[in-house]
């Protein structure tokens, strides 16, 4: 176990994600498919909505009958019927005719638009008492009401055409993308009751360290409770995967080896939450190297916090040795591990920068950074309070700040603190990435923040 | 049912959320508490971490023994022991002494700091072979190794003090806030195995309209499948609540009344997904008014899309009549209904503006807006590609754009389209709010976008 591994950059490590394959596919009812990852492209099997629909209450007309109509010079149209919701009209509209229609109703043949009810007035009869009539019925109606049209409509005005939402044959959903409510709604519109999705991956968590005790035990002096199993489980849940706990393994080679084998057998990715000491890392590498069909891919990443991260490929599955400090382990999960999980989940794009929106914010303090490594600084985000131009956190001595502060509303306050302090993550709303070729960022700089989920 | 209701502003409606109470409380194991809402304040029952811990591998020392140490003038300290992980050292450190320690190890009495191993060199012995020794043992050691210290440390350097993360008695978690992985980790650190949380609310969905058919049926011409039940269910899932479907109710007063009663009985909030026609709205208001102990609070909101929204208070529960257009219903859920759900979920702060981070972006096109109503425009977000200063979408004819474009990386492209087209929501990454006193926003303006969940 005397290999020396060169510390790799974040970019080098990210490229390794493509070595791992997505989980297998299953079919689920669409009501269970929310926020799952679609596993096949979906095409429209028919036009949506499938018929010409009104988007307003009013009168279905042929637009040419209304051209030139105005308040002072209204068009007069014969009201030949009223269209019931959900029914296909049994009559058609000729020039000079109209039919009463509600929002969502189907336009009769010959009608290409709807005049809003607000731009009409019925003369000589209650058109609402009319029901759908066909040509013959109409001949029997002794008195036909008339509607005055005060505003012309263009062809297709106030309607959705039969293939305006989606056309038959068009690709409507893309494999490897997230199924949001609207994507599932679209599947519903096509009558798709089940969707092919990637299975939900399971992620094993093995806690190691002679100093770690279960949370329901009172730790003796020198020991601490198992925090990282819970923070990691939460991050796995947040990412849409299933955490599986393998307990606390003492620093014993055989015990860790057996736990790794079991976890690799039962899950799609394994996290070893270990100590941050050199001895602990060597121990993890030794155990990983002794696993069958396993290759150490990464032993150290040029990021802070999180440098002592280990990645091995065991068969087709990634197995990670994470740093022991609670903040380091969380940052490494968000920044390094998550893209690999995204790959396993079946997402097309698996880089965190592509997969989440960064929030531009103005930095409130200078932050120094060492060259040659990528730093992730926890930040608290806050919004400018209207009229509070003298916010004590931000001052106005800096010209860039002065230029931006009135347009810009989000500020990022760096949280300085040791990566062993969970307090700093409890305070944080996001992470500021400082690139490896950057010496630091300054108060007033516009920076892009990686958001941590918050809701208050 | 001839009441005329004045259309209310978004702000007026938002104030009504406080009329509704949070659901009741339950205790759950912390491993099931992720992203639940905490229902009581939590105080630290003891200091965290509870003892002075090393944050580096190295030597535990009294910092005063290292003052003035440098490469050219090292301090020489006696190595009197080595501290095993998870153990309380049985010896203490005097001036001039050191003990080998790993990251996470407990400092002995008398030691206030750790010298990093990189700044030391052991002379005359393998200190690692030493185990914890007490004063008497030490007297029996014939040869005591020495460590050269090349850099001084300050008091508390490279350690976390016993109460540095949290102090006993300090409030560590606040009732009404979201339990993220880090908050749950903090509870774990304190040995809290169960947390009091608000129950997960159930939200009933009733679909109405004679034109609506279940998704597994082939709609006849003039009918469409039930899309809104699915998009609303997805939004409820996304918000952390449980959707309960009550099926499609034909436009029949008694049937809708019974469905409302059942849904109000079984859930914490009810959504009626109805048509957008005036007749349909009147019908919904009539049914709501005939429910026992029910008051219509809102009948129309000055927003677009979403104006024909109805809110009633039935007993202690909100019941909504949502507009029928798919986009309108989704926008109303995100903007109007969600704050009420947040209130029911137990969150301290329930306004969407407080509860989510808005993303500043540069608008790529002018968008007109009517005064007197708040508009929500769907937008697609995209990032500037490095070096792509001639992005065809944004041009550079506008001076504000020119000023901001190099600093700013996110652009918002308005998606124009009818609110009956689900396509526009499938394309959208967020919503642009245009206030009721604003006539429009211009290309190049810095705007704040309400994000819709995306992952690609």
What is the secondary structure topology, with strand pairs?
The structure is a homodimer of 456-residue chains.
Chain A: H1 10-15, E1 25-29, E2 42-43, E3 53-54, E4 58-61, E5 75-82, E6 97-101, E7 113-116, E8 120-123, H2 135-140, E9 146-149, E10 159-160, E11 171-173, H3 181-189, E12 194-198, E13 202-208, E14 212-213, E15 224-225, H4 228-238, E16 242-249, H5 253-266, E17 269-273, H6 278-289, E18 294-299, E19 303-304, E20 310-314, E21 317-322, H7 326-345, H8 352-355, E22 359-363, E23 367-368, E24 374-383, H9 399-405, E25 410-414, H10 422-427, E26 430-434, E27 440-441, E28 446-451
Helix pairs in contact in A: 4-7, 5-6
Percentage of helical residues of chain A? 10-25%
Sheet with most strands: strand arrangement of chain A: 7-4-6-5-9-8
* Gap from first CA to last CA of chain A: 48 Å
Structural class of chain A: alpha/beta
Largest interface: A-B, 119 and 119 residues
Indicate the mean pLDDT of chain A: 88
SS strand fraction of chain A = 25-35%
Give a short account of the largest sheet of chain A. 6 strands, mixed
Shape of chain A: elongated
Radius of gyration of chain A: 32 Å
List segments of chain A where confidence is low: pLDDT < 50 over at least 5 consecutive residues. 127-141, 350-355, 386-406
Helical run tally of chain A: 10
Oligomer category: homodimer
Please count the beta strands of chain A (DSSP E, at least 2 residues each): 28
């Amino acid at each position: 176990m005397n290999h020396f591994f060169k510390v790799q950059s974040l970019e080098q490590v990210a490229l390794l994600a493509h070595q791992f394959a997505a989980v297998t596919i299953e079919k689920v009812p669409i009501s269970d498919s929310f926020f799952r990852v679609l596993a096949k492209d979906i095409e429209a099997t028919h036009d949506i909505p499938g018929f010409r629909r009104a988007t307003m209450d009013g009168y279905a007309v042929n637009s040419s009958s209304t051209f030139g109509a105005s308040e002072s010079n209204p068009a007069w149209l014969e009201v030949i019927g009223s269209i019931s919701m959900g029914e296909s009209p049994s009559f058609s509209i000729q020039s000079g005719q109209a039919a009463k229609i509600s929002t969502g109703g189907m336009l009769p043949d010959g009608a290409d638009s709807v005049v809003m009810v607000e731009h009409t007035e019925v003369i000589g009869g209650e058109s609402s008492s009319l029901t759908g009539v066909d040509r013959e019925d109409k001949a029997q109606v002794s008195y036909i009401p008339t509607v005055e049209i005060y505003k012309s409509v263009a062809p297709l005005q106030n309607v959705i055409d039969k293939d305006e939402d989606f056309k038959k044959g068009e690709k409507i959903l893309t494999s490897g993308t997230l199924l949001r409510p609207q994507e599932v709604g679209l599947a519903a519109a096509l009558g798709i009751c089940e969707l092919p999705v990637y299975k939900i991956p399971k992620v094993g968590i093995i806690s190691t360290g002679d100093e770690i005790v279960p949370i329901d035990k009172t730790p003796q002096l020198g020991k601490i409770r198992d925090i990282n199993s819970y923070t990691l489980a939460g991050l796995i849940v947040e990412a849409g995967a299933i955490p599986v706990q393998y307990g606390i393994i003492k620093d014993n080679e055989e015990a860790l080896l057996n736990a790794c084998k079991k976890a690799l057998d039962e899950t799609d990715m394994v996290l070893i939450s270990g100590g941050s000491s050199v001895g602990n890392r060597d121990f993890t590498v030794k155990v990983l190297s002794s696993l069958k069909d396993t290759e150490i891919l990464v032993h150290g990443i040029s990021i802070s916090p999180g440098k002592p991260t280990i990645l091995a490929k065991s068969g087709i599955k990634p197995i990670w040795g994470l740093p022991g400090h609670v903040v380091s382990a969380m940052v490494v999960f968000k920044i390094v591990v998550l893209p690999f999980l995204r790959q396993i989940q079946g997402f097309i794009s698996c880089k965190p920068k592509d997969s989440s929106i960064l929030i531009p914010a103005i930095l409130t303090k200078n932050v120094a950074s060492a060259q040659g490594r990528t730093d992730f600084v926890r930040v608290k985000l806050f919004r400018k309070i209207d009229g509070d131009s003298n916010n004590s956190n931000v001052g106005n001595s800096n010209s860039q700040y002065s230029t931006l502060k009135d347009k810009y509303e989000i500020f990022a306050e760096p949280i300085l603190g040791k990566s062993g302090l969970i307090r700093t993550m409890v305070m944080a709303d996001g992470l500021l990435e400082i690139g490896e070729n950057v010496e630091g960022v300054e108060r007033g700089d516009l920076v892009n923040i990686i958001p941590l989920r918050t809701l208050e």
